[in-house]
């Protein structure tokens, strides 16, 4: 009987050790997975921002359409200034302005058209990936919209927003930890996920991770 009790106590002790270990290890593993997904999602949101800013430079506004933005990145172009040469101290001392130096062929300033894909993303980027949240083993799209807001001084400002909720970014991870993370964001009056831009205020296209 005594031997049986000792065996049972040993099993209970091992069980307690396991639960203590998991209680320590589980949040560490969750945070590690969360940070990896957050990092990948932030990089994608930065790409969306670059594409939107290029679109606005051409069209004067942002777009809330994925089809429009992706088509723009794949097939449209932006204007860039090709600069060859700079005003030297001796040119300035001689009374030359940049415009006069250009007329005399001493420096070159040309406006050239370059594809958005090449200019913004280096040419090898898959524009179709822009709309997808980089979550393993699932297909989920960022929510994106555009708007024009009026500031307190009466100035109309084009804005856009792209975002992904924690429930999407962290899909497949421990559900209770996700619930806790969302509740923490709610208490802090913050968006429970990652986003860039805002539809209600001018934030200079900043991300909520910055």
Number of strands: 5
Total number of helices: 7
What class, by secondary structure content? alpha+beta
**Which value, in Å, is the CA radius of gyration?**
27 Å
User: Termini separation (Å)?
Assistant: 64 Å
Q: Which blocks of ≥5 consecutive residues have pLDDT under 50?
A: none
- Please give the largest β-sheet: 3 strands, antiparallel
Q: What is the typical, i.e. mean, pLDDT?
A: 85
The H/E string reads HHEHHEHEEHHE
Q: In percent, how helical is the residue content? A: 40-55%
Anisotropy-based shape: elongated
Describe the structure.
There is one protein chain. With 210 residues, the protein is of the alpha+beta class. The chain has a domain at 75-121. Helices cover 49% and strands 19% of the residues. The protein contains seven helices and five strands, in the order ααβααβαββααβ. The protein has helices at residues 2-59, 66-75, 89-93, 98-103, 116-121, 166-169, 175-187, and strands at residues 77-84, 108-115, 143-150, 156-165, 193-197. It has a three-stranded antiparallel beta sheet. Strands 1-2 form a two-stranded antiparallel sheet. Strand 3 (143-150) and strand 4 (156-165) form a beta hairpin.
């Amino acid at each position: 009987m005594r031997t049986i009790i000792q065996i049972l106590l040993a099993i209970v002790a091992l069980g307690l050790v396991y639960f203590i270990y998991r209680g320590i290890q589980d949040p560490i593993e969750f945070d590690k997975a969360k940070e990896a997904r957050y990092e990948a999602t932030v990089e994608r949101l930065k790409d969306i921002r670059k594409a939107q800013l290029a679109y606005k430079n051409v069209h004067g506004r942002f777009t809330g359409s994925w089809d429009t933005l992706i088509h723009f990145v794949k097939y449209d172009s932006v204007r860039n200034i090709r600069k060859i040469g700079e005003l030297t101290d001796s040119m300035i001392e001689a009374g030359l302005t940049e415009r006069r130096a250009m007329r005399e062929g001493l420096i070159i300033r040309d406006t050239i058209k370059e594809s958005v894909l090449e200019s913004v993303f280096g040419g090898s980027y898959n524009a179709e990936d822009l709309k997808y949240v980089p979550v393993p083993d699932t297909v989920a799209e960022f929510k994106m919209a555009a708007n024009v807001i009026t500031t307190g001084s009466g100035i109309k400002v084009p804005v856009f927003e792209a975002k992904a909720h924690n429930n999407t970014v962290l899909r497949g991870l421990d559900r209770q930890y996700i619930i806790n993370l969302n509740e923490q964001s709610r208490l802090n009056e913050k968006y429970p996920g990652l986003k860039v831009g805002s539809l209600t205020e001018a934030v200079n296209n900043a991300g909520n991770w910055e």
